[in-house]
TrEMBL record:
<feature type="transmembrane region" description="Helical">
    <location>
        <begin position="155"/>
        <end position="175"/>
    </location>
</feature>
<feature type="transmembrane region" description="Helical">
    <location>
        <begin position="364"/>
        <end position="387"/>
    </location>
</feature>
<feature type="transmembrane region" description="Helical">
    <location>
        <begin position="259"/>
        <end position="278"/>
    </location>
</feature>
<feature type="transmembrane region" description="Helical">
    <location>
        <begin position="327"/>
        <end position="349"/>
    </location>
</feature>
<keyword id="KW-1133">Transmembrane helix</keyword>
<feature type="transmembrane region" description="Helical">
    <location>
        <begin position="21"/>
        <end position="45"/>
    </location>
</feature>
<feature type="compositionally biased region" description="Low complexity">
    <location>
        <begin position="481"/>
        <end position="493"/>
    </location>
</feature>
<dbReference type="InterPro" id="IPR045931">
    <property type="entry name" value="DUF6350"/>
</dbReference>
<keyword id="KW-0472">Membrane</keyword>
<feature type="transmembrane region" description="Helical">
    <location>
        <begin position="122"/>
        <end position="143"/>
    </location>
</feature>
<feature type="transmembrane region" description="Helical">
    <location>
        <begin position="187"/>
        <end position="213"/>
    </location>
</feature>
<feature type="transmembrane region" description="Helical">
    <location>
        <begin position="233"/>
        <end position="252"/>
    </location>
</feature>
<feature type="region of interest" description="Disordered">
    <location>
        <begin position="437"/>
        <end position="523"/>
    </location>
</feature>
<dbReference type="Pfam" id="PF19877">
    <property type="entry name" value="DUF6350"/>
</dbReference>
<feature type="transmembrane region" description="Helical">
    <location>
        <begin position="298"/>
        <end position="315"/>
    </location>
</feature>
<protein>
    <submittedName>
        <fullName>DUF6350 family protein</fullName>
    </submittedName>
</protein>
<feature type="transmembrane region" description="Helical">
    <location>
        <begin position="81"/>
        <end position="101"/>
    </location>
</feature>
Amino acid sequence: MTHLTEHPLVQGGRSAALATACVRGGVAAGLGLGALAVLVTAAWISSPFAEGPGGALHAAAGLWLLAHGVDLVRTDTLSGLPAPLGVVPMLVAVLPVWLVHRAARDTLDPGDDSDRPRPSPGGAVAAVAGGYLMVGAVVVVYSESGPLPAELISAGFWLPAVVFGAAGAGVWTALGRPLPVRRQAAAALRAAGLGLVTLCGGGAVLAAVSLAWHAGEAQASLAGLAGEWSGRVAVVLLVLALLPNAAVWGAAYGLGPGFTLGTGALATPLGLVGDPAVPPFPLLAALPAEGRGTWTHWVAAAVPLAATVVQGWRVGRTAPGRPARDAALTALAAAWGCGAVVAVLAAAAGGPLGSGRLSAFGPVWWQAGAATVLWGACVGVPTALAVRAWGRRALRPKPLPLPAPAPANADAAASATTPATASVGAGAGAGAAAGFGEPFDLETQPAAAPDAAGSGSAPGAVRGAGQATRSTGKPDHPGIPAATAKAAAPALDLDLDDDPGYEPYDYLPAAWESSPPPPDPET
């Protein structure tokens, strides 16, 4: 008997899924490189100083590598010495990062085809990153023959780090963005993200206000860099690509450490010290003037203050029922998480612009990260504890009002209520609570006629709830006189004598009333 063994590749198993993921990574790299090549080629066609298509392709390859954080080396300098270039245009970096993210996400997301085999999360990250890095290695080799070759050590570190990070984020998105199981860790991550968005948004506002304040200098710088329209369009596009960098610079300025403007020059809210080496560029026209800082510069501290307050508020809202120690540790963990991301952004936003004095330009990554953690510890932790304390105060139950004490001079008749009267009151209250309507008010009913003793039944008297005497005229409770019972529970005359369908058994005691005692055998 022959058994047929189906190969998983023919079957469309995991091997085929990994191969598809690898192809997706390569296609994502090709799309990003092609988009930048089209943009650079359009600028090359419109430029009157175009040298050839090879230079445009090499420029596109260098820009693609620079978007991944890879440092480039300029060889065509006036001095003839190679000059490094390491400032990442962060807006351009969004394109390759998003392409890798989408490729990894689509690898694990089945979409409409739920029967399609999928690799494991780790396999998806490795396959997509592997396909992307194969194209990246080709681009690095190609850039070595152009005017902007890649620095190999930087390419070997930053290119895989960015690709694996974006692929991991895509897999995390495909899995539904799960957060850590521990509640404190999830709260710290959410608070860190909210604080990071507030900090970068505030930095963008600072940069925009400063650029609007120095609009004249920025316009003069733009006119001096390029005289023809094609050159000005290229400079404007470069300014747009560096706008996120300006936001990070503004955040670092508000945090306190500021940023360097060449070796030996530092700009902080306290003032600009040293001799800055600032090349002519529209965005750099927004830098603060030299000298001691004034209140207009000190206002920048409101940005990290607002970010850490929001961060602590987010932690405190989720910790009203937890101990104060857990809330403080959660706020401190959020500060560390936000500081780590700020350090990475500061490292990408700055870097060398050349050799010599231009070898250090922008915020220092470790100073920006440490300042973020310090702000979070000094402002975020107390804010979280204060919000937690306020939340616990709001959750504290209010004391219930105490019942009023009974009056000392209570009616003696109420204290001497007969058991039959108590039964009437209990039955009426239960009937009203069960929805049977309001009970009869015995005091407002007309006086009943005298009981007809010995007649066997009293047609004019209704056996109501808790009636004191039966139709035989004997009291329900032998220990209670009949006169007292009649006074406590008078009969109700409802004029039922004229009703031919009336039967005494239509008015039996209700379920909540005490049943009458058995008849006396002596009678």
